[in-house]
Write a structure and sequence with these properties.
single chain, mainly alpha, two-stranded antiparallel sheet, 2 strands
Length: about 375
């Protein structure tokens, strides 16, 4: 339950924690002169969350499942020739540890709402007034990660608004919806279009938005088209004949080669031979890099995730910030970008286990 008394110091501390969490989720393979910052960010995030709350989150079973998953299914990553790739393990460990604290932060503070709203405003300003007419908008992050960032900010604002339903929160959610839709279209990514579809469906499912509101929001692309004077036939996200499509089709062919010539059960000893260092699909990566057991485990977690959010409204609300990241992992990146997705799937899988077993797990959202 969020305190009614506002403290500037508490707000700033919580804002700093939220920025740390954001960096943990999105820093990925960022490096300077071969130095990857992910392990450092992972350590700092974990330490600061513990110092802030001065307690360990009561979720030992969930943590054990996460670390068991790492040892059994992902441990092979430490032995790949590409030493930089195994850095994602640090991000995964910290993500499993920090994810429960994220919900405490959302519940107790308005800082995530404020930072996310500010982030979307800044991105919108850059997209409209600085980037010009470039319909493949990117800023700090490339387009395939930027749409995840935008969706994450949007989801945080929606989660806070659904939890509070008072004051500026609903208006902030409406404003952020317009900003997010515009920016997502500006990225020109197909994944961004699917994120829009998933988020709109989620809004209708978890928030009971009226059909006419959804219809009005769906008219935004037409407004976008009018503002930028372009044809949808020429819009990159709807053009499936380009190089990006060819790259992804080549990955499918590579998987077929792996299934006929590779070590299917344990995964390839040199997976980059088949799908390179950028598999563009987390399911393909698990199959080729880690083999059948990890592939099946990931499928089970994906089924648990989508099944749980489909039948449990509370979990559907809690996952709003993470739908864009999960969707994005199916279209782009490697575990260097998608380690947080694995933590989210394990979190939801443990939630399903608790739900079936009648155990308390989900936080109360007001």
């Amino acid at each position: 339950m969020r305190s009614e008394k506002f403290s500037v110091i508490d707000f700033l501390v919580d804002a700093f924690l939220f920025v740390l969490f954001f960096c943990l989720v999105f820093i990925g393979d960022f490096s300077i002169d071969g130095f990857y910052f992910l392990p450092l960010v992972a350590l700092i995030s974990s330490v600061f969350f513990v110092l802030r709350y001065r307690k360990l989150y009561r979720g030992g079973g969930y943590w054990l499942v996460g670390y068991f998953f790492l040892v059994v299914f992902l441990g092979k990553a430490a032995f790949f020739e590409d030493s930089g790739y195994s850095v994602f393990i640090f991000g995964f460990l910290a993500s499993v540890f920090c994810l429960p604290y994220f919900y405490d932060l959302i519940d107790r503070s308005s800082a995530p709402f404020g930072v996310s709203l500010g982030g979307l405003v800044v991105l919108f300003f850059v997209a409209v007034f600085i980037s010009g007419e470039d319909l493949r908008f990117n800023f700090i992050f490339g387009p395939t990660i930027l749409y995840r960032v935008v969706g994450f900010f949007w989801g945080v604002v929606l989660l806070s608004s659904i939890s509070q339903r008072k004051g500026f929160y609903p208006w902030g959610a409406l404003l952020c919806t317009f900003l997010a839709v515009y920016i997502l279209f500006r990225t020109g990514s197909r994944g961004a279009i699917l994120v829009l579809a998933v988020m709109f469906f989620s809004l209708y499912w978890v928030a009971g938005f009226k059909k006419k509101i959804i219809a009005a929001l769906l008219l935004l692309p037409l407004l976008f088209s009018a503002l930028h004077d372009f044809s949808f036939n020429e819009y990159r996200a709807f053009n499936f004949g380009g190089e990006s499509t060819e790259v992804r089709i080549s990955k499918v062919s590579a998987v077929n080669d792996f299934l006929t010539t590779g070590n299917v059960f344990w995964g390839a000893s040199d997976p980059s031979v088949y799908v390179g260092v950028y598999p563009h699909n987390i399911v393909v990566e698990f199959l080729v890099y880690y083999g059948i057991p990890a592939f099946v485990a990931l499928l089970v977690l994906l089924v648990a995730f989508f099944g749980l959010v489909a039948v449990n409204r509370k979990m559907a609300v809690m996952m709003l910030p993470f739908y864009p990241i999960v969707v994005g992992s199916i279209f782009s990146g490697s575990n260097m970008d998608n380690y947080f997705v694995i933590a989210v799937l394990i979190y939801s899988g443990w939630g399903l286990f608790c739900l079936v077993g009648g155990k308390a797990f989900f936080r109360e959202l007001n």
